[in-house]
Amino acid sequence: MIFISAHADTNYKRVNLRIEGDSYVGYLDNYAGVYTAVKAFFSGEINFDYVRIELTPDEEIDMRGARQVAKEVKKNDLVIVIDVTGTPTDKDFVIEKCQSHIVRKFLVKVLDGFSYDIYADCPDPVANEDEVDVYKHKTEYCFFLGIPCHGGDYNFEDTKCKIRSIEHAAEAVIKICREYDKFIPAE
Question: 2-182: which CATH topology?
Answer without folding.
Answer: Aminopeptidase (3.40.630)
